[in-house]
């Protein structure tokens, strides 16, 4: 994949089971990258294999898990080598195995896996039983294979389908079709003669037919007629003929084969939808071809013929690409070469696929020929046309050497394939090539209600009837093989040849003759000789130079001359020995792989050096870029800061100027003020001077008097200070004497404490000795008592052991109960099981106590608002539970109350301000008109004292009903929102009669009405009547409102119609 965009691996095995392709897929998954999306793609690619194996593999005499179909998978990779997705193509499922298996072989695995691994409920839904012998399509001689665990494989298949992306209903539909095929095989027919002498067929037991029709959703009569009659259309004419028993069995088997084959094709298409690459651009692609190997059985039929034809085509590609083309390439490139002879099987391919005289062309011509066509006529035609072919042998051919060959039966022909001679029995060739499914059966299948059947039988659509004969099986397979060959030609194929060591399906056994035969007919000897004499690796000069040019200084980084000279300079510089390579005209050829490994190792080392150089340059560039960014940022920050500093300086100067101006103006104003004041003072000078003078004289006199007082008080103060000084001196002397006396007391106290502590330690030591003697004496007394008491212990031991055991059990019980307590949810009814029966009463009482405590804890978390909400919900449950059909849907809906947000909505501001009480509920309801049963929207407001109805558009109050005037509320038991507010007779609000309304929040509305009336002490509790028929008072007339179940024509809406003057009929849908 490194140098090639399109790669193909071809796996061929001797009756293989696809193990080689699974190993390739596992290897691809292991070496690819990791990641959530990549892991998902890898897992889907890997898990598609168990699904296809279950539906396409079967046990044969040579292999317990033999592939009975061909598979080609394209896997797309991105530039990192991670898988993006894939596309699977399938070739020729051996659908004849569905209805008949050779001795010692089984049907497809899925039938046995379904019966062995499905649960009892699944089998009951599919109307199946586990006994294999109940089904005619399952062979009993090898139904159980020791190497296969069908039950475990069924679980693996279910899990793989989920990983690939199958939905649960899709998996159920697939299993229903598998079950239908089994049921189809149990349908048997009996002959019945008609009055006109024609024989027709009838179904013996219609029970299997009935169960099959129930699985597929087909009317039993339609399918029964399709098994009994056949309609032939030719232009404008239709002819219906009866089917005899043989034809009915043929129709049954044809339907079973087509149903299973189309189901398998649908599975492949469905898997492709899940695993296909999401990207629109095409990346590198690896194709994995896993196809059936060459088959030679005791009895070989049409399936083995076309399988061996496919292997002939693959062998032809192998010969062309590995032997002929490689040798021609050496000659074309001018490399010295000795030609190696090999067998070319093109002559065998021409014998089979020639458009004029090929076996497939003659088989198609015989199938399309009018008149009586049998397998014998086909064999006669082969004997006439192919008699002279060197690889064709027949007992009835013109060659005399086969006339007495008793190993060649009369109804057989033999072809000498590249793998050996194969004897084909012509019986069934024409029918299997026709692969004809009667149009009546296709149309019957198209009428099914099953989700898959219409997709599988599109030709049954009566609107798209195609009278053209469908292509034969041989033609379709030949076209598929041609497409496959064209696809492989566009890729670079690699071959994996799987050699079968023995025919016993056992390990560690090597049959030399069998292995040599396989090596010989696969052409491996010639291939080995070509490979040993040739070159292991070749590449054109341009990509070679481009890949390895960094290994030479002369070619790195650019080579200016021709690519060949650059490669020569490169190889010379690397000193590669001349015998290890050769120069062709356009390519270089390398003989030994170790030379290529040497180049790759040198390239790896060089790439590491280049990576280090790139990292160094990148890190330098990154650091320089970071530095330049920092430098640029510093310049920007500096410019912004300078701008900010200049702005601050300007503002400071501006502020200073303003301050100076304000000070100057202030100074000028104060100067003017002083002048004005001076003029005023001059005018008042005489009065002022006189007043000051008198004041001065008065103050001088006052100071004189105060001085005299101070002189008298000074003598007293000085004496007091002197007395205080003397007293403080005496106090200090007394304190000093007291300190000296205290020091002596402290020293004496410390000495006495030391003596006391020594005495205490001595006394403690004596006490310890005395205590030790007492303890030893107590132990001795205890030992004597135990010896004396031992003889009395056995009499009371049982009771004590019993009490101890009970105490231990109770302790263990409570500890275990502590660790296994259920959750704190009050609705959790789980409780640990009691370990012993004698704890039954305690266990029950503890469960009750725990539940009560848990409920108390749960209630303690409620706020007042939440308690009110739960109280309303509880009251709603008491009113409507099991009475009103719409109640269950209202349980999960919270009671909001104000649905209009009337206090915040400016549209209803006037209406909100006009209501004095608090609005408990605001909603839009429909007021029902008795004249025509139609509703008009009204605003419904509920307060603690009244019910208010207002116009929705204008907000104008239409009616206001005090709550004491309400007599009762009536509603139906069904899932509608109609209710009637019945007023008390004689009240002021009852003049216009009762109100018939409809609301989407009926439960909440009636609950709040009932709750308000029950909490009021001055009025009776509001009555709530739930009935499908009640009376409503409209002015002077009473009208009956009747609720009925509506039909499907009315849809899911509730409608109210007036039947007469006394009856309004409300039609309610059947389900809420």
Structure characterization notes:
- The protein has 1072 residues and is of the alpha+beta class.
- 52% of the residues lie in helices and 16% in strands.
- The chain has 28 helices and 29 strands.
- The strands form eight sheets. It has an eight-stranded mixed sheet, with helices on one face. A five-stranded mixed sheet has the order 5-4-10-1-14, sandwiched between helices.
- α10 runs parallel beside α17 (473-489).
- The longest helix is centred in the last third of the chain and has 135 residues, at 685-819.
- It is extended.
- Belongs to the TRAFAC class myosin-kinesin ATPase superfamily. Myosin family.
What is the C-alpha radius of gyration, as a whole number of Å?
54 Å
What distance separates the N and C termini? 62 Å
Total strand count, please? 29
Helix content: 40-55%
If strands are numbered along the chain, what order do they take across the biggest sheet?
21-20-19-18-24-23-22-25
Kindly state the mean pLDDT as a whole number?
80
Give the structural class: alpha+beta
Q: Characterize the biggest β-sheet.
A: 8 strands, mixed
Uncertain ranges: 1-6
What form results from the Cα inertia axes? extended
Strand content: 15-25%
The helix tally amounts to 28
Organism: Characodon lateralis
InterPro entries: IQ_motif_EF-hand-BS, Kinesin_motor_dom_sf, Myosin_head_motor_dom-like, Myosin_TH1, MYSc_Myo1, P-loop_NTPase
Family: Belongs to the TRAFAC class myosin-kinesin ATPase superfamily. Myosin family.
Protein name: Unconventional myosin-Ib
């Amino acid at each position: 994949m490194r140098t090639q965009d399109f790669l193909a691996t071809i796996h061929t095995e001797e009756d293989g089971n696809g193990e080689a392709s699974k190993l390739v897929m596992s290897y691809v998954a292991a070496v690819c990258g990791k990641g959530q999306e990549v892991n998902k793609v890898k897992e889907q690619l890997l898990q598609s294999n168990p699904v296809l194996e279950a539906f396409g593999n079967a046990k044969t005499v040579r292999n317990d898990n033999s592939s009975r179909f061909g598979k080609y998978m394209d896997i797309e990779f991105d530039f990192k080598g991670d898988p993006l997705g894939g596309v699977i193509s399938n070739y020729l499922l051996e659908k004849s195995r569905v209805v008949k298996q050779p001795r010692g072989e089984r049907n497809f695995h899925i039938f046995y896996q379904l019966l062995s691994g499905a649960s009892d409920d699944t089998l009951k839904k599919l109307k199946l039983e586990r006994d294999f012998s109940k089904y005619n399509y399952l062979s009993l001689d090898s139904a159980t294979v020791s190497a296969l665990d069908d039950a475990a494989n069924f679980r693996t298949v279910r899990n793989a389908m989920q990983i690939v992306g199958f939905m649960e209903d899709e998996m159920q539909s697939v299993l229903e079709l598998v079950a239908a095929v089994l049921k189809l095989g149990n349908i048997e027919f009996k002959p019945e003669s008609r009055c006109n002498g024609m024989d027709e067929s009838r179904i013996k037991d219609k029970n299997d037919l009935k169960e099959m029709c129930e699985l597929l959703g087909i009317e039993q009569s339609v399918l029964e007629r399709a098994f009994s009659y056949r309609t032939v259309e030719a232009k404008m004419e239709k002819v219906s003929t009866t089917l005899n028993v043989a034809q009915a069995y043929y129709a049954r088997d044809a339907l079973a084969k087509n149903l299973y084959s189309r189901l398998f094709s649908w599975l492949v298409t469905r898997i492709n939808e899940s695993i296909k690459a999401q990207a629109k651009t095409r990346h590198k692609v690896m194709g994995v071809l896993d196809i059936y190997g060459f088959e030679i059985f005791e009895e070989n039929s049409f399936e083995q013929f076309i399988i061996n034809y496919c292997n002939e085509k693959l062998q032809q590609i192998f010969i062309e690409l590995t032997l002929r083309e490689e040798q021609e390439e050496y000659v074309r490139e001018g490399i010295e070469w000795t030609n190696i002879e090999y067998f070319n099987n093109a002559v065998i391919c021409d014998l089979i696929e020639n458009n004029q005289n090929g076996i497939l062309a003659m088989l198609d011509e015989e199938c399309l020929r009018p008149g009586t066509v049998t397998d014998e006529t086909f064999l006669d035609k082969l004997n006439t046309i192919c008699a002279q072919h060197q690889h064709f042998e027949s007992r009835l051919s013109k060659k005399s050497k086969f006339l007495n060959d008793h190993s060649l039966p009369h109804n057989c022909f033999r072809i000498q394939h590249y793998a050996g001679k194969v004897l084909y029995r012509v019986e069934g060739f024409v029918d299997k090539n026709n692969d004809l499914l009667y149009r009546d059966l296709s149309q019957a299948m198209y009428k099914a209600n099953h989700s898959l059947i219409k997709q599988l039988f599109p030709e049954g659509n009566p609107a798209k009837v195609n009278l053209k004969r469908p292509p034969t099986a041989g033609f379709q397979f030949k076209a598929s093989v041609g497409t496959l060959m064209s696809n492989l030609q566009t890729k670079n194929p690699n071959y994996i040849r799987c050699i079968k060591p023995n025919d016993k399906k056992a390990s560690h056994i090597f049959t030399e003759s069998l292995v040599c035969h396989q090596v010989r007919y696969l052409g491996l000897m010639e291939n080995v000789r070509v490979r040993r004499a040739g070159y292991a690796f070749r590449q054109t000069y341009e990509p070679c130079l481009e890949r390895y040019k960094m290994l030479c200084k002369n070619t790195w980084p650019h080579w200016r001359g021709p690519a060949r000279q650059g490669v020569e300079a490169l190889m010379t510089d690397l000193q590669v020995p001349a015998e290890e390579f050769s120069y062709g005209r356009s390519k270089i050829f390398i003989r030994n792989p170790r030379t290529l490994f040497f180049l790759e190792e040198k390239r790896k080392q060089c790439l590491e050096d280049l990576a280090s150089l790139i990292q160094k340059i990148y890190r330098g560039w990154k650091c320089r870029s970071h530095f330049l960014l920092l430098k640029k940022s510093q310049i920007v920050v500096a410019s912004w800061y300078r701008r900010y500093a200049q702005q601050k300086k300007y503002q400071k100067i501006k502020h200073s100027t303003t301050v100076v101006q304000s000070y100057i103006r202030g100074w000028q104003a104060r100067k003017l003020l002083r002048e004005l004041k001076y003029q005023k003072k001059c005018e008042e000078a005489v009065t002022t001077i006189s007043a000051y003078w008198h004041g001065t004289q008065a103050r001088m006199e006052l100071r004189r008097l105060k001085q005299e007082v101070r002189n008298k008080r000074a003598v007293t103060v000085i004496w007091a200070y002197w007395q205080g000084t003397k007293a403080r001196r005496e106090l200090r002397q007394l304190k000093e004497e007291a300190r000296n006396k205290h020091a002596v007391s402290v020293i004496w106290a410390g000495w006495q404490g030391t003596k006391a502590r020594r005495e205490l330690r001595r006394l403690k030591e004596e006490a310890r000795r005395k205590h030790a003697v007492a303890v030893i004496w107590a132990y001795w007394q205890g030992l004597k008592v135990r010896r004396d008491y031992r003889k009395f212990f056995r009499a009371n031991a049982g009771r004590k052991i019993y009490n101890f055991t009970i105490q231990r059990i109770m302790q263990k019980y409570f500890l275990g109960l502590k660790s296994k307590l259920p959750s704190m949810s009050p609705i959790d009814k789980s409780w640990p099981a009691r370990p012993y029966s004698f704890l039954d009463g305690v266990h029950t009482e503890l469960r009750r106590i725990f539940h009560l405590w848990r409920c108390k804890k749960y209630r303690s978390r409620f706020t007042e608002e939440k308690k009110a909400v739960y109280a309303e919900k509880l009251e709603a449950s008491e009113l409507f539970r099991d009475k009103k059909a719409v109640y269950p849907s209202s349980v999960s809906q919270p009671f909001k109350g104000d649905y209009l947000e009337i206090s915040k909505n400016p549209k209803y501001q006037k209406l909100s301000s006009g209501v004095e009480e608090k609005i408990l509920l605001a909603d839009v309801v429909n007021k029902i008109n008795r004249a025509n049963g139609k509703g008009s929207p009204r605003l419904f407001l509920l307060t603690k004292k009244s019910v208010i109805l207002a116009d929705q558009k204008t907000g104008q109050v239409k009616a206001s009903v005090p709550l004491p005037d309400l007599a009762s509320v009536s509603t139906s038991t069904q899932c509608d929102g109609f209710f009637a507010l019945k007023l008390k007779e004689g009240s002021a609000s009852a003049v216009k009669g009762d109100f018939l309304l409809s609301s989407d929040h009926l439960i909440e509305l009636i609950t709040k009405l009932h709750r308000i009336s029950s909490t009021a002490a001055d009025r009776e509790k509001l009555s709530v009547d739930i009935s499908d028929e009640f009376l409503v008072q409209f002015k002077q007339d009473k009208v009956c409102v009747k609720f009925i179940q509506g039909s499907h024509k009315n849809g899911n809406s509730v409608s109210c119609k007036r039947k007469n003057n006394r009856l309004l009929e409300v039609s309610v849908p059947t389900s809420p």
